[in-house]
Automatic annotation (TrEMBL):
Pfam families: Fructosamin_kin. Its EC number is 2.7.1.172. The keyword Signal does not apply. The keyword Manganese does not apply. This is Protein-ribulosamine 3-kinase, chloroplastic. InterPro entries: Fructo-/Ketosamine-3-kinase, Kinase-like_dom_sf. Keywords: Chloroplast, Kinase, Plastid, Transferase. It catalyses: N(6)-D-ribulosyl-L-lysyl-[protein] + ATP = N(6)-(3-O-phospho-D-ribulosyl)-L-lysyl-[protein] + ADP + H(+). It comes from Hevea brasiliensis. Belongs to the fructosamine kinase family. It is found in: Plastid, Chloroplast.
Amino acid sequence: MVALHVGIISFNSCFPCLPGSRLLRLRFTKRKSSSVAAMSEDPIREWILSEGKATQITKISSIGGGCINLASRYDTDAGSFFVKTNRSIGPSMFEGEALGLGAMYETRTIRVPKPFKVGPLPAGGSYIIMEFIEFGAFRGNQSVLGRKLAEMHKAGKSEKGFGFDVDNTIGSTPQINTWTSDWIEFYGEHRLGYQLKLALDQYGDTSICQKGQRLVKNMAPLFENIVIEPCLLHGDLWSGNISSDKNGEPVILDPACYYGHSEAEFGMSWCAGFGGSFYNAYFEVMPKQLGFEKRRDLYMLYHYLNHYNLFGSGYRSSAMSIIDDYLRLLNV
């Protein structure tokens, strides 16, 4: 959902809310005790001036914030760092983000900001420190983005099945990533089923919940005659989470990673602006599977339901329309 990086502003929606040297260690030991105490009360500053290999922070700039996190740029004599903080949520959310960024980074395919450190804030809340990427003036070449994303999907595989090592969040909604051997079961229970239950609990929406569950129980024919391998997914790929660096290379950020069917990556395509050159380049690396067009809306449904749960009834009709269309298609 919504993100601006450089800053990265993590809203997660289409719409806004509707490593230390010996010299350095010696330098620390010469500080007065009051300074040491102050350092321990600021873990972000402490990390940057030790493991971050900086000797001084020259400037701290606020680069925005959203419904969920605040973002800052820390300029130092060792380069710049990007920092997100949240004053009310513990480290688990940023730990999930860091693990996702790390997994994508390790594929050595598409550029993502390298995560450095996650931790709690002394007064409550949490922070994440990561690589600061200077963005270019344009989003970058769509065909390069498509090819790089497909290369990530091809390189990022899991032998554990579908899921992720930790639960994370899609926006501020919990995203359950319990390892599951069967994709239809995983998507039905931990993606659509979870969102449908939220709609029932939050709005008392029995109609969308009951119809949605009928779809979940009968959607297997949409996956006939294909083999689904777990691929590393960004998980929340819309236009605000896509940019390019100053060299024009694509950058993706603010992930909600898990291992899933590669087609599920396009669930936010209604808010991503992918064009023909993107899909042509993607399918040259990851060939299109039989029935792709019939499953496309099924993967959009997860994100429409999440927007409904996060932002209200403005997204309900889109979710219900998809459910009704599939119930007619499947004749159930």
